Each structure stands twice: as structure tokens, then as C-alpha cells.
Amino acid sequence: MSRPPFCVPPTGVRAHRLATRRGEFAVLDAVPAGEPAGTVLLVPGYTGSKEDFIALLEPLAAAGYRAVAVDGRGQYETAGTPGRTAYGLGALAEDVLAQADALGAGPVHLVGHSLGGLISRGAVLRALAAGRPSPFASLTLIASGPGRVARRQRWRARALRLGLPVLGAGRVWQVCYRGVEPGDVGAFLHRRWLANVPDQLLATGRTLRYEPDRVARLAAAGLPVHVLSGERDGAWPVPLLDRMAHRLSARRTVIRGAEHSPNAERPVETATALLDFWTHTSPPATDRPAAAPRPPADGCASPAR
Fold first, then answer.
1. Rg from Cα positions in the chain
2. Per the record, which residues fall in region Disordered (predicted)?
């Protein structure tokens, strides 16, 4: 579970619902003062939400990009759909394609964290398989690997599959997340956990356990790819991410001091790396970050509806 440093949208970031051909999705939308240099769509991971990217939005907008972070179907403030088939990887990838189209900005820079990286990759591949014009200018995979997660994480996803229907979300929180610190951010994490649709958690947990390696297909798509991670990662080992980046001929960035959620743990460094990647059409093999923007102030409140 990613822990955002704060959860009140900064000045200039608007919480609203994005209407698409596949329904409405709760978003945080940061718009730059002038004509956007580009548009960014940020897709969160398992048990996450749009707030996992909240500390990236202000620096990305300050650099001239419109940045839109989304709650996926059945995540936090986006309504769910009955049944688990609505949360298969293909269905969630179609949601991302619909979100990109609804932004009406031409090709967007797609950023997916963890499970969101698998979903984002699926969106790229579905557009390619259907012969559609690509709605994406680039793809950044943050702490997201070539296929299923590491063994320990598969065990955890399986334990949740067995325990959630029996114990319920409230009891699972007490058992698994009782160490979450009190305070505004802790209260937000608890509120978000309870708001997640159980079928979504069960179906996407299965994706994490069984998703195959699709790196060769992604490499054939010809899209510029950026593989970004922390120095340590329990979901996909960092050497595995290194090898995936090599197979993709991708830009590779390792954020010092970060683990599985550099977008939340080191947002300034992560924003700088993203901006540097988007600036270069043929990014070098190693990251050379520009001057880091200042992070926004801390704070938290009840989420906007």
C-alpha cells in the first residue's frame, strides 16, 4: 500500500469526475497556467488510488504538463461494477484507453505504478492489436515488472483472496494494517481501504499472481518506454526490472532512497526523472535529472466528492 505524503489537493489541482465512454472516473487534475506541453495520465496500483501521485501533480503542472491521476474502476472514489469480470486486465486496460480518449489531448504520456503498470501495458497492447492509432506518446512503468509479482507477494495476494470474503474489509485492516500510523494520512488510508470494491481487490490480486511476461510484445510496439523504480522493491526485484528495461531498450531510472513507491516516497526526484524522459525522444540509458522542483506543503482532509 502506497502512503502519499499528504492527501489534500494542492493549489491548482482540481478533484472531479472524468466522463468517458466507459463511465465516470474520479480524478485529480492539474492544469498548467499556459498551453500544456503535454498531457499525462497516471494509473495507480493495487490497493492504491489517484492520491498515490498527488505529490507529482504540482511539479508536473509547474513544468507545463497537464497531469491527471485517476482512481480505477472500483478503486476508492470510482464506482465499481458487479462481478469480477469487470476487473480483468483487459477490461481495466479498456478503461485506460477510454480515459486517454476522454482527455481530448492527442497522444498522452501514460504512467502506471505497480499493478497500474501492468494495466497500462495492457492498454498499449490492446490498441496495437486492434489496429487503433496509439493514444499514447510514451509509457513509464513505475515499480512494475514483466509479469507476475515475486513469490512472497503472490502469497499475500492469495491470503487476501481467502481472508477478505470471510473476515470483511474492516477486520482485514485490523489484522494486516494495524501498524499504520494515526493522523490524517493514516485516516485517509483506512478510508480508502474500506472504499475499495472487494471484487476489484480479488480480481486484480489474481492478475498480480498470474500475469505472464509480455515484454517482447511491448518492445515490438515501438513506444518510448521508461522503467523507473526505487533502490529496493519487494514486488519485483530491482535486477529483474533492470533486465526488463534492457529487453525494452528503455530509459532506466533508479530513485535513491525509494522502495516500491518512488512516486510517493521521493516525488520531487520522480517528477524530475519523468520530465527529463518526456523532454528527450531518444532517452539515454541512464537518467540525468534536471534541477528538482520544490515539493508542495503537507496536509490532509476528507476527499473531495
1. 18
2. 279-305
State the pairing for strand pair 136-142/108-113: parallel
User: The pTM is what?
Assistant: 0.90
Q: Which three cell numbers stand for residue 145?
A: 515488472
Of all residues in the chain, the percent with pLDDT exceeding 90 is 74
- Residue 294: burial class (beta carbons within 10 Å; 0-12, 13-18, 19+): exposed
CB atoms < 10 A from the CB of 75, how many?
A: 30
Q: What nine digits make up the cell of 15?
A: 478533484
Ramachandran area for residue 96 (φ above 0: left; ψ -120 to 50: alpha; else beta)? alpha
At 189 the three-state DSSP class reads helix
Query: What are the C-alpha distances in Å from 107 to residues 103, 183, 191?
Result: 10, 40, 34
Q: In what order do the strands lie in the sheet with 136-142?
A: 13-20, 23-30, 65-70, 38-43, 108-113, 136-142, 225-230, 251-255
Looking at residues 272-281, what average pLDDT do you find? 92
Closest by CA to 37, choosing from 2, 67, 3, 69, is 67
CATH classification of 13-279 is 3.40.50.1820, yes or no? yes
Note whether 218 and 225 are within 8 A (CB): yes
pLDDT of 283 reads 36
DSSP 144: -
Q: Is the pLDDT of residue 268 over 80?
A: yes
Closest CA to 31 of 4, 5, 69: 69
- Cα 2 to Cα 262: distance, rounded to the nearest angstrom: 9
Q: Please work out, in degrees rounded to the nearest 5, the angle formed at the alpha carbon of residue 22 by the alpha carbons of 21 and 27.
A: 95
Confidence band for 281, pLDDT divided at 50, 70 and 90 = low
Lowest mean pLDDT among 116-130, 143-157, 206-220, 241-255: 143-157
Q: Which grid coordinates belong to 13? A: 489541482
